[in-house]
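G., the chain you wanted modeled:
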Amino acid sequence: MHGIEPLPSRGGTITVELVNRLHDDADGSTHDPGRPYDRANEPAKMDTPASLLAAYAELWNRHDLTGLERMYAVPTTTLRPDGSLHVLTNDAAIRDFYAGALRGYEAEGYATCALIDVATSPAGGRAALAQGTWVMRRPDGSEIRRWRQTYSLALSSDGWRIFASIVHAPD
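Predicted structure as tokens:
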């Protein structure tokens, strides 16, 4: 369990085990057993929180779900503006969740996006918080909408990874 202690919850105890890229052993022994481990298929090392977010925005612009999946630690969570909390416990769940988000964005006319006004702050030696504004655009460059998002990031042997995100509800 990598020294992670059980967390109390209203209905008993939830044990959180951070695996895969967050606690990646040199031999790959903690990778997702459902997917062959191959470092050649991993994204470029993300040396700073800002470099992770820049690469993340580029992957959205390429509509690259496999690349997006690899930006996340497993498990990961996302809190949506409607208050729903999604706990994504494996690579397939991450890919499926963001495939659904991409379909929804495309239904709105999405072609590209930009993450602007990014601010990061350290949260100890192996964690950071990042916040920015997403701007979604149509093929003609006109703006569809904007939203703020906050990310909790963790440093792994392969660089920074997202382990939680909050999509801000409108004010």
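The chain is about 20% helix and 35% strand.

Shout if anything looks off.
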